[in-house]
Design goal:
The complex is a heterotrimer of chains A (502), B (354) and C (340).
Chain A (H helix, E strand, L loop, with lengths): L4 E10 L2 E11 L4 E5 L6 H8 L7 E6 L2 E3 L4 H6 L2 E4 L11 H6 L5 E2 L2 E2 L1 H14 L15 H13 L5 E5 L7 H16 L3 E5 L3 H7 L2 E6 L2 E7 L5 H9 L21 E10 L3 E9 L3 E5 L6 H9 L6 E6 L2 E3 L4 H6 L2 E4 L3 H4 L7 H13 L7 H14 L16 H13 L5 E5 L7 H16 L3 E6 L2 H7 L2 E6 L2 E7 L5 H9 L7
Parallel strand pairs in A: 3-10, 3-11, 6-9, 9-10, 15-20, 15-21, 18-19, 19-20
Antiparallel strand pairs in A: 1-2, 1-4, 4-5, 7-8, 11-12, 13-14, 13-16, 16-17, 21-22
Helix pairs in contact in A: 8-17, 12-13, 12-14
Chain B lengths: L1 H5 L3 H17 L7 E3 L2 E3 L1 H8 L1 H15 L7 H18 L6 H28 L4 H19 L5 E2 L3 H8 L1 E2 L2 E2 H19 L2 H10 L1 H6 L4 H27 L1 E2 L8 H11 L11 H20 L8 H15 L1 H10 L4 H20 L1
Helix pairs in contact in B: 2-14, 3-14, 4-9, 4-12, 4-13, 4-14, 5-6, 5-7, 5-12, 6-7, 6-12, 8-12, 13-14, 16-17
Chain C lengths: L1 H11 L4 H9 L3 H20 L7 H26 L7 H17 L4 H25 L4 H19 L4 E2 L3 H8 L2 E3 L2 E3 L1 H19 L1 H11 L1 H6 L4 H27 L1 E2 L7 H11 L11 H21 L4 H28 L1
Antiparallel strand pairs in C: 1-4, 2-3
Helix pairs in contact in C: 3-14, 4-9, 4-10, 4-12, 4-13, 4-14, 5-6, 5-7, 5-12, 6-7, 6-12, 8-12, 9-10, 9-12, 10-12, 13-14, 13-15, 14-15
Classes of the chains: A alpha/beta (502), B mainly alpha (354), C mainly alpha (340).
């Protein structure tokens, strides 16, 4: 059978980094195909390349064998490719019917016929099992309904390829069931469906074929029936080939060293529920979990970046109220975000200013660190962390990913924190920098700092962490000493569906 | 040598020098300075003196723009400030008394500061878009000023008050010293404390700044207070110059010229990196251009056409579209162009990702 | 399946009329608030002035005196619905007015002069739209350039006012189509016509719905394949066109073109649009609301002059109303963000 859509050697670059590096992808009519990968694997980029939202730097896109190049989402739509994006792209200020029909409203003599439009919308919505007033404003409805309306829009046209990017993240089980019914129906009509989800259960339930991406590169294409769940996760996470200084894990489990950070029942809506964490002095707690498991929510809740809805956090035995990152910093708890470009680096400021930013704001506006002291401080961090190029006055945004991460680390370490929470510090950076950061974490812990180290790479978590907490579906499902775990047993914990029938 | 023309103040300085050169050739009187009674006179002195109100307003605007904001209410605050000062002086028994004038000036500036607090509250606490938040005062402020003066143009005859705008200290206009003092204070506060760099951080990446523990609310609020206060001082200068409080005419369009000065000085309206020196040069360019247009015999009422052309040229040259094209053309300027391109791409990505 | 079933049931149990209405037309609430304010103003003035206020004469004059502002508010509504702003309208109106007066004074026939006025306005709008859409200039700054340009060009045309003698133009103002004590002038009809055409375009054409979509989320609108760039530029062209038309109306009203006309009128137009319930961040609002906003504005002005109070109260009251609406809108937006 000939693929309906075929992408060969696709490459997309952002500046110097390749977000997509010579990736092949094909989609057959009447199949549900899943695209799997961690953060930064290139899933979103691939989707955007297919749907005309991003141009390809290299490679070729073929639709039914014919070479095509979409200049805009509009052109892709005209060719029968409909997309529902991960961030719900709807217009809350317009009616449900308009959200479905906008741009192709039924018209009579050039005038939009509201009546026809609403009738058509109602029909499509009923097809999706959704009985709502098509004339009501979309913003009035829940996120789940908005998501279903976005899907209704996508299938309302003569669709040949339907791209669903994380369509189920805001749906409950019944709604997912309803969606799957529609997907099967479309499939039987010969529509090709690209289904992206980080819920493995759903992928195994609905998908025929899986393409795995990692760090922007193509890993492989597999039939779901022939690929064990555990192998899939392994392919997504990859094997760490880097040399690592083995860290001497204390043999005994548990933090009987003084507990620095203790959390009980920490809950943040739509993220993490009822999490207990004990972090000892000089301990590295590795956190393993897939994208969307709640690992980032946990880190943010523990550091005051997002407010918690329930639970208590205490530092060295004293209950604290963490309502801002600033409060966290005052208590010696610092957080490094997984998205360094968006939440980390101040791109146009120099390396010098970026490194001293947190320290300066902690001292207050008026007590400026003397210029000479600032340079000295920043230079010492640049040297200690081997930040390259060692140019203090260069805008931080021009550094490579690994060096940006080091600048961020330097900013936080300059505060001499007690607890360092690192959210995927090694994501998307080159192997050399990765090893350096891993080794640095070990050294810091040896000097008494407590570290929470989040990573999608299981071997990294095992090697860096003294203990490992596994996060799945918004809960900490297991905390165990790293020595008692192997990459395979950890993989099972991370990937396993709930078998205890919760 | 290359580093000089790469400096971001290079083009503003060239523009200013060109204007001065053209003027000097076209009318030799332009650079001539005359001494009369130990006081300097001449076209350049006039420019330095007359630019003082715009200079004060533009300095405040620079700080506000650095935080990704904008302050439309500065003209209205000028009107209020002038009205307050003149009403106090007018109502006193002895308008010529130095103490009276000092009290009037201090009260007027305090009132302006309160108006700045109000703007800052709307923006930093209530989270209203800066354009809209300051639009309220832009609209209502003149009404308040008219109310204070009772709907009339209050005129006074007060020697000490007139001195502020028209008097001389040593050999130079007193207003010039006010300009210099404001530039110095703002420059020192921004660069000798950490305020400057923290303001830039908040303007460039508010979320990263929050995660780094920066108190962005206080910084943004402070920017509007500074802007309001400086506008109040500018209002005093304006009123002193015409010896009257004209609530309808004081500071009309000054917010627009101030924004133009900031942009001419190389500070982006998207916030972040700002340059006090750039703004100073921007103000001088505007004032010199104004003087040039007058000299050319163009009625001053028609000068907005020239400024419109300047605005269009500046924003088009600064636009990402043109920058990217330039970046591609010149390899030698790669580092800078790369940042610009990376930033633009980031913004586009952020938008796409939204 | 249970969730679906319960949802269906609750629907079948019959939503009240009010529920349906709110879910369909919740965004009309601010406009109703404006109507309520207008009624309160009318009734208050009527009681306060002992029955001298609500007279056919006064109400008719309300439309007559504010026809130019209504035309400007119509154009402004398009721009604000896209999430932009147009500061140039007052200057564009002045430029168009003086241009028309000058052309007519030089013997150019009205059927040439009037299109020239409209085109002049539309051209400035086009420039603003291109700067905004293709050069990523903030609407505020781009329209600022338009403001400077319009004002400067007005003075280039003439430094002083020019009287209009052309009977065709004066007819627009002097004609009174009467119905008892009520009357309406052709300028009033032009203004109401602009409202009607705008309402039709905004609600029943794809272009109009695209304008709303851009205001809701420009990114979403683009991903939905709507013609975003064209609609955005057109919004500014329409605003410029309305500026030109307002110039015609004002010239007829005052019988002369004057380059100082309309200083600060852009703020009045923005205030009227916002008071009428259009949200400044875009996507929500109605051109009918803008009309109500203009009437609120005009009524406050009339009341102030009836009471013999300072006109300065006008600016303060309008500023306060603007603040009230902005804070309420902010609260609404914050609440709907909380829902997501």
């Amino acid at each position: 059978m000939r693929p309906l859509l075929e992408l060969t050697g696709a490459t997309v670059r952002f500046g110097a980094d390749a977000a997509l590096d010579r990736v092949d992808f094909r989609l057959f009519p009447g199949e549900v195909h899943s695209l799997m990968g961690e953060n930064g694997a290139g899933k979103s980029t691939l989707i955007k390349a297919i749907t005309g939202a991003l141009p390809l730097d290299e490679g070729e896109l073929r639709l039914e064998g014919d070479h095509v190049a979409f200049a805009s989402p509009h052109e892709a739509q005209a060719a029968g490719i409909s997309t529902v994006y991960q961030e719900i792209e709807v217009l809350p200020n317009l009616s449900v019917a308009e959200n479905i029909c906008l741009g192709r409203e039924p018209r009579r003599g050039g005038v939009i016929s509201t009546r026809l439009m609403q009738a058509r919308a109602r029909e499509i919505l009923l097809d999706l099992g959704l009985d709502i007033d098509p004339a009501s404003m979309l913003g009035q409805h829940s996120v789940a309904v908005q998501q279903l309306v976005a899907i209704a829009r996508a299938i309302s046209t003569d669709v040949r390829i339907l791209v669903l990017d994380e369509p189920t993240s805001s749906l409950d089980l019944d709604e997912v069931g309803e969606l799957f019914r529609v997907i099967r129906d479309l499939k039987s009509r010969g529509v090709a469906i690209l289904f992206v989800s980080h819920f493995l259960d759903q992928v195994y339930e609905i998908c025929d074929r899986v393409t795995v991406l990692r760090d922007g590169a193509f890993v492989g294409e597999y039939l779901t029936t022939e690929l064990l769940r555990i192998d899939l996760v392994q392919k997504m996470l990859g094997r760490d080939v880097a040399d690592l200084k083995e860290r001497d894990h204390p043999d005994d489990a548990g933090p009987e060293a003084a507990v620095v950070l203790r959390a009980r029942g920490v809950t943040a809506r739509h993220g993490i529920a009822d999490a207990d964490v004990d972090l000892g002095e000089g301990e590295v707690l590795g956190v393993a979990g897939l994208l969307g498991s709640g690992r980032t929510s946990l880190a943010r809740a523990l550091t005051g970046v997002t407010r918690t809805d329930a639970g208590t956090i205490s530092v060295e035995g004293e209950d604290v109220h963490l309502d801002s990152p600033r409060r966290g910093m005052a208590l010696g708890i610092v957080y490094s975000s997984e998205d360094r470009r968006r939440d980390g680096i101040v791109a146009e400021l120099s390396v010098l200013d970026n490194i001293t930013l947190a320290l300066q704001s902690e001292r207050g506006v008026l007590r400026q660190i003397p210029a000479a002291r600032r340079r000295e401080l920043a230079a010492s961090w640049v040297e200690a962390l081997d930040i390259r190029p060692p140019d203090l006055d260069r805008p931080a945004g021009t550094l490579s990913g690994g060096n940006q991460q080091k600048v961020l680390l330097a900013r936080l370490l300059a505060l001499s924190p007690r607890v360092l929470v690192l959210d995927e510090p090694t994501r998307g950076i080159d192997v050399g920098a990765k090893v350096e950061i891993q080794n640095l974490v070990g050294e810091l812990a040896d000097n008494g700092m407590s570290v929470i180290f989040i990573s999608a790479e299981l071997e990294e978590v095992l090697r860096v962490g003294d203990r490992v907490a596994v996060v799945r579906d918004g809960r900490i499902v297991r905390t165990a000493p790293a020595g008692l775990l192997t990459a395979d047993s950890l993989l099972a914990l991370v990937a396993q569906p709930d078998e205890d029938g919760e | 040598m290359r580093s000089i023309w790469r400096h971001r103040l290079f083009w503003p300085v060239v523009a200013l020098l060109t204007l001065i050169a053209v003027n000097s050739i076209a009318r030799p009187n332009f650079i001539k300075l005359r001494v009369r009674d130990g006081e300097l006179f001449g076209a350049i002195i006039t420019i330095l003196r007359d630019s003082a109100p715009l200079m004060l307003v533009a300095l405040g605007m620079t700080i506000v723009i650095a935080t990704r904001g904008i302050d439309l209410s500065v003209g209205a605050i000028m009107a209020v400030s002038g009205a307050v000062a003149l009403t106090i002086i007018d109502g006193s028994d002895d308008p010529g008394n130095l103490a009276t004038v000092l009290i009037a000036v201090v009260v007027a500036i305090l009132v302006s500061m309160v108006l700045g607090v109000w703007n800052g509250f709307l923006v930093s606490v209530l989270g209203i878009q800066p354009i809209i938040a300051t639009l309220v005062l832009m609209l209502a402020g003149r009404g308040v000023a008219l109310l204070i003066t009772g709907g009339f143009i209050t005129t006074v005859n007060s020697e000490p008050f007139s001195y502020i705008a028209t008097g001389y200290l040593f050999v130079l206009p007193f207003a010039f010293f006010i300009s210099v003092a404001a530039i110095t204070v703002i420059g020192l506060v921004e660069r000798r404390t950490a305020l400057g760099v923290l303001t830039e951080a908040v303007g460039i990446n508010p979320e990263a700044s929050r995660l780094a523990g920066v108190r962005s609310r206080g910084i943004i609020w402070g920017a509007y207070i500074v802007s309001g206060t400086l506008a109040g001082l500018a209002g005093i200068l304006y009123a002193s110059n015409i010896r009257a409080a004209d609530a309808n005419a004081a500071g009309v369009f000054i917010e627009l010229y101030a924004i133009l000065a900031v942009v001419l000085g190389g500070t982006s309206l998207n916030g972040g990196k700002f340059s006090i020196a750039g703004t100073v040069i921007g103000v001088l360019i505007i004032q010199t251009l104004d003087s040039t247009i007058l000299f050319l015999g163009v009625p001053s009422a028609q000068s907005p056409v020239f400024f419109a052309v300047v605005v269009v040229v500046v924003v088009v040259v600064q636009s990402p579209r043109i920058r990217n094209a330039l970046g591609r053309m010149s390899r030698s300027r790669k580092p800078k162009a790369a940042v610009a391109a990376a930033v633009v791409e980031d913004k586009q990505k952020a938008e796409v990702g939204r | 399946m249970t969730a679906m079933a319960t949802r269906t049931e609750s629907r079948e149990s019959g939503p009240s009329f009010l529920q349906t209405f709110v879910s369909r037309h919740g965004s009309m609430m601010p406009t109703f608030a404006a109507v309520a304010i207008l009624l309160v103003l009318f009734v208050g003035a009527e009681i306060f002035l002992r029955g001298d206020f609500i007279t056919p004469r006064n109400i008719s004059a309300l439309l007559l005196d504010n026809a130019y502002l209504l035309v400007l508010a119509v154009g402004m509504t398009f721009v604000i619905l896209t999430g932009g702003i147009d500061l140039s309208v007052g200057s564009v109106m002045a430029f168009s007015g003086i241009l028309g007066a000058k052309l007519l004074a030089e013997g150019v026939p009205a059927f040439v002069a009037v299109p020239a006025m409209l085109l002049g306005g539309a051209a400035i709008g086009l420039m603003i739209g291109i700067l905004v859409q293709y050069f990523n200039v903030q609407p505020f700054i781009a329209s600022l350039a338009g403001l400077f340009l319009g004002r400067g060009l007005a003075y280039v045309v003439s430094l002083s006012s020019i009287k209009v003698e052309e009977p065709g133009i004066l007819w627009l103002q002097s004609t009174r189509i009467r119905l008892g004590d009520w009357y309406i002038t052709p300028t009033g009809l032009i203004a109401l016509g602009a409202v009607a055409v705008a309402a039709f375009v905004l609600h029943l054409t794809r272009f109009g719905r695209t304008i709303y979509a851009i205001g809701g989320s420009e990114q979403s609108a683009r991903l939905m394949g709507l013609k975003v760039a064209r609609a955005k530029v057109m919004a500014y062209v329409i605003s410029g066109l309305c500026g030109g038309l307002a110039g015609l109306v004002l010239t007829a009203y005052s019988g002369a073109g004057y380059p100082r006309n309309g200083i600060g009128t852009e703020l009045d137009a923005i205030a009227a649009v916002v008071i009428g319930g259009t949200i400044l961040t875009g996507g929500r609002g109605y051109v009918i609301g803008s009309m109500i906003g203009v009437f609120v504005y005009g009524t406050i002005k009339t009341i102030i002059s009836f009471m013999g109070a300072e006109q300065s109260w006008m600016q303060i009251i309008v500023g306060a109303l603007l603040l009230l609406f902005i804070v309420v809108q902010r609260a609404i937006v914050a609440r709907s963000e909380g829902r997501r």
